[in-house]
Specification:
heterodimer; A: disordered N terminus; B: MetI-like fold; 72% helix
Chain lengths: 306, 314
Amino acid sequence: MSTDAFTPQRQAALRSEDPSAARAAAARRRARRPIGKYLLNTLAMLVTLFWIFPIYWMFLISVRPLTNAYSQHPSFLPKPFSLSNYSDVVNDPQFWNSLKNSAVVVFSAVVVAVVVGFLAAVAIARFRFRARRAMIVMVMIVQMIPLGSVIVPLYFIYTKIGLNENLLGLVIAYLALTLPFCVWTLRGFVAGVPVELEEAAMVDGCSRFGAFFRVILPLVVPGLVSTAIYTLIQGWNEFQLTNFMINQNDHFTVSLYLNNFLGVNRQIQYGDVMATAILMALPVVILFMLVQRKVASGLTAGAVKG
Amino acid sequence: MTSLENAPELPGRARRGRGSSKIRSGGVAPYLLISPAVLLVIGVLGVPVVELVVLSFQSWAKLNPFSNATSGSWTGFKNYTTQLTSGQFWTITLRTILLTAIMVAVSMLIGLLLALLMQRISAWARNIMTFGLILVWSIPTLVSTIVFGWMFNADFGVVNILLGMLPHDWFNSSVSGFGVIVGLVVWGAVPMITLMIYAGLTQVPKELTEAARVDGASTWQTFRNVVEPIIRPVVLIMTSLSVFWDFQVFTQIWVMLNNQPHEQFWTLGIWSYFEGIANYDYGTASTLATITMLILLVVTIPYLRQLIRIGDAK
């Protein structure tokens, strides 16, 4: 047997069955191909460094005085270190206002998307009804409507019904943009819960809806978390549509605030711009890190499982 | 998910297959459950799409946007014939298609290679790599566009400094300018693609690859015949989503070029936005958008069929 077959997962699987065999396999592998593994690990680290370099560069500009950003002989270390760029941003009430707007809009969108998406996923995964196939087609077709295309007509409609320049209008728009993916992902999760579990609950005296909420809901929490995160990232980062809908400063979301800031300060306050950008990305990065395992497995379970 | 259906083992499949016969036929319950989602999507996307198609048959060019006029004048297929016979339209359409093809191909290839790399490295290296990729994934497009714009700045960009070619304006020519934009899009797209494909790779039953090796299959044969069929659904979905996203790349071009991209950087999306916003020519903007949707629809019909099959499997 070639040692190539012993992927890390395989080693882990073996370890759980028979630790000595796993150790022996690992030892054999190490003995035979040590250099290959080192090379691959090194390659992986180089790729990672290369990939996060732009983020590191952004961080450097944000923590150094502006003159360093305009230097033609830049150093790659955060020296001299200063947080003055951050204090500029944090002392701007407009920044906090836009942060509040974003938080309100995105939080509402996430809550509604998870609830509405779960209900629709239960319908598609658990019932056979006449319009079911049409629903699946709709969920998919929506993914291919170019956002840029619907902006003008949506703007017309919003103007007619007074949702323009309105945070509620943004919530509704973000919902429609993210729901199809949420329904599709959650569908995979609901389908993965054995029907027998629900039936057992119903035999034990649960109503059908009781069974949905008491049996399915707890089992699809990873799916709910990943759809919530997906909606959060989409909403938090949405720029194109929001840029069209919102013009007044006090309705700005963080992405509009940043873009406006950039428009005013281009070539002037790059440190401030980068500090704003980092502050804008920070909440999403932290949340993402907190739930990343669930998200990665959740997204795939929805997409990979039939 | 036909490939997995045909996979020899995976006992969970069989159990779920039996469960599917117990799926209820429903009554009004499924309609009640699904109606909020459907109403939202129809309201925000369905109605505008209909309106969009209607607008594409009208001329708005001469109307003052602040007048109270509620419609343009009907012009039939005039907008379409104007576009389909103009050289500018074909240049921009072909440019958009070419750009999309390059972005999707490069990001899928790198994503696949990195996923295969992740599978073969030590656990600590994999954790670090995952962390880096997720960091990149969660950076908003607007932010990464600003950073790339600054890194490629003509006078102070770190890339020019490292390459020793100061000052050099990357956006002087559309080829090098689009090179930077492709780099930016690929940079942002690779993390999600890599992590999704890697997660797909972990679903490949080890017994299968093992058996293939025992039977003397080469690395390439194992990948082609054992691994590839199982990760095909996730690769398919990521490719199709990439086509949608990359065809509509907007922020990266718009912001990179100071909210005023020169005509040599226009794609269908940018052009449509320009006509709608700068020229208040909603007829032309809607026509371009409708054509964009038709192109995407044609390109993705196979994807749609595959997804219906996955959804119907239950």
